[in-house]
Amino acid sequence: MKNYTLFAAAFVLLACQNTSETLTELYNLPKKLKEVSGITYSEKDKLFWAIEDSGNANKIYGLSSNDGGILKKISITDTPNIDWEDITKDSEGNLYIGDFGNNDNTRNDLCIYKIDQKSLNSEEATPIYKVSFSYPEQKDFPPKKSELLFDVEGFIEYNGNFYLFTKNRSKGFDGTALVYKIPNKAGTQQATLLGKFKTCDNYNHCAITSASISPDASKIVLLTHDKIFLLEGFQGDNFLKGTQKELHLNHFSQKEAICFKDNTTLFIADEKTNKVGGKVYEVSLDKFK
User: Fold this and answer.
1) Which of 45, 76, 164, 213 is the most exposed place for a label (fewest CB within 10 A)?
2) pTM of the model
3) Are β-strands 124-125 and 111-115 bridged in parallel, bridged antiparallel, or unpaired?
4) How confident is the model at residue 14 (pLDDT cuts 50, 70, 90)?
5) How far apart are CA 258 and CA 267, in angstroms?
6) Which helix (H) or strand (E) holds 158?
């Protein structure tokens, strides 16, 4: 879900920040897709699966990795798009849609939908199952303005569990992000808080908008509007026990989606705001070494 006010001051910088030696611009997103909120990459099909967030259709789109054109369009039946904020996949190629956008921290209908990879050649698909969940730490709906910690725009699936990285919307933003674990099982589940970490104290630059895990599960990336937080060197799912690096993209836009192409190459998509963005970019982690 949008929060355009954050760009009021930040876009003043764009005149001297609209190019970057780090990011390689690949192509424009289709004009039809104005609010892409998540992408994941299929090596088998050589395409991206993309979703849009609240106010848009309950559809997933298969985009050509060569030029970004729409090759597939699948309606997800009986599945409202309340606020789809990210899409990820498991090791078998099944897709998961995260309907957990929660700007005001008022929702009690947060969920994740599983889409069978076998249904991705059809024009319609019905989720295999729905995972509903809640956060035990959230007692009020909404909490105090200083405790708006329960919005999410980025998650991954790993070894039969989902891992959610929250987007802090608190007054007095200090960069705190929570990490939750949820079993990848049908029905109602309770999220388990694994820990917290801090990005930086500037909302425009350090609110988390997407997440992805590398094919070999050795790296996790968390996206913001102008940087990537890289987690690696962890054991199992102790993601916060490894190393954390802040990688500057030197390019500010409304970046909302990130995924791995391979173990070192990333794709990033941004929304078009004030004539900036609406593109897909590629970046190599090797450039930061």
Assistant:
1) 45
2) 0.94
3) unpaired
4) very low
5) 6
6) strand 151-158
Burial of 36 (C-beta count, 10 Å sphere; 0-12/13-18/19+): buried
Q: What is the pLDDT of residues 38-53, one digit of tens each?
A: 999 999 999 999 999 9
pLDDT of residue 226: 98
Tokens of 275: 């004539």
Distance of alpha carbon 213 from alpha carbon 216, whole angstroms: 8
Beta-strand pair 95-99/111-115: antiparallel
Structure-token pair, residue 131: 């995972």
Amino acid at 14: L
pLDDT in tens, 146-166: 999 999 999 999 999 999 999
Pairs from 228-231 (Cβ < 8 Å, separation ≥ 24) = 228/258, 228/266, 228/283, 229/199, 230/285, 230/288
